[in-house]
Amino acid sequence: MSQKLFEKFQQSMRGEALRPYREHLSQRRAGLAAKRAFDLFAALLCITVLSPFFIISVLLVKTTKGPVFYRQLRVGKDCRPLNVLKFRTMVVGADKSGEITVGSDDSRITGVGKLLRATNFDEFPQFFQVFAGSMSIVGVRPEVPHYVNFYTPEDYATLLMKPGLTSPVAIAYRHENDLLAGSDDPERKYIEEILPAKMAINRAYIAQFSFLNDMKIIGRTSRILFEKDEMLQKE
After folding, report:
1. Which of 104, 131, 169, 175 could form a disulfide with 43 if both were Cys (CB 3.0 to 4.6 A apart)?
2. What sign for the dihedral angle of Cα 222, 63, 56, 92?
3. φ, ψ of residue 15 in degrees (nearest 5)
4. d(Cα 222, Cα 135) in Å, to the nearest integer?
5. pLDDT digits (tens, 9 = 90+) for 28-48
6. Which residues pair with 178 in a beta bridge?
7. 217 and 167 in contact (C-beta within 8 Å)?
8. pTM score
9. 145: left (phi over 0), alpha (psi -120 to 50) or beta
10. 100 half-sphere exposure, CB direction, 13 A CA radius
11. CA 69 to each of CA 72, 86, 88, 106: distance values in angstroms, whole numbers, following the listed order
């Protein structure tokens, strides 16, 4: 992300639209401290327990041509650049096309990548980022700079907290790519329909933040791993 774009995002966070969100978070300092303590405990536990699967994933990705990990530039807390770490699930250079990933049948996704995406295990490396403090278990899923350009002044409130591995948006739009696959213009659909809807959910999360709500979101995330997506059934 260029310095000029970074400064633009920083300036947008100084607006009055964020005042209610800042005040709410200032009254939730104990909850934020509990959140960080939980992040450390949960990240360390997951890294320890799932380490055999981490090694297996590394070996599987290494069977495809290219690096094991993929780093994608996102906009993190306080508009800081954040390179989200994932296991690589697409062919090398797929991101250079600038196209949105549209569904599990996207030809750029490798066979191993489909397995990792289906189990959400491509996100596992982010537990290390949670432990390091640049991410949280629960938060707002960070956007790439291109889409932050379309934020409303109030949407910048979502950058007041660390990005999360899971969130209400991640639950509601867990098959987002498949939803986009049915559109004639996925980019336009995302910007005009999906992004505003996601940001409304994100703002509500920030406005209603509490440690208890975070625990509820984790519970919902655990349940949906074993449930069918009702959203797709309604489309």
Report:
1. 131
2. negative
3. -75, 160
4. 19
5. 999 999 999 999 999 999 999
6. none
7. yes
8. 0.85
9. alpha
10. 23
11. 10, 6, 5, 19
Count of residues in the chain: 235
What would the two tokens of residue 16 be?
């009055």
Q: Can you tell me which residue has the tokens 């780093």?
A: 71
Summarised one tens digit per residue, pLDDT across range 11-33 is: 899 889 999 999 999 999 999 99
SS3 content of the chain, % helix, strand, coil (to 5): 60, 10, 30
CA separation for the pair 173, 153 (Å, rounded): 23
CA distance 204 to 207: 5
Q: Mind listing the pLDDT tens digit for each residue in 70-91? A: 999 999 999 999 999 999 999 8
Structure tokens at 116: 């990792």
- Label the pairing between strands 69-75 and 81-87: antiparallel
Please give the share of the chain, as a percent, with pLDDT higher than 90: 66
Rounded to the nearest angstrom, the gap between the alpha carbon of residue 44 and the centroid of all alpha carbons in its chain is 20
Ranges of each domain in the chain: 3-227
Token pair in block for residue 97:
């096309």
Q: Which residue has the tokens 């633009």?
A: 8
How big is the CA angle at 81 (ends 77 and 83), to the nearest 5 degrees? Answer: 105
Residue 2: exposure state from Cβ atoms within 10 A (0-12, 13-18, ≥19): exposed
Place of tokens 């295990």: 121
Tally Cβ neighbours within 10 Å of residue 117.
21
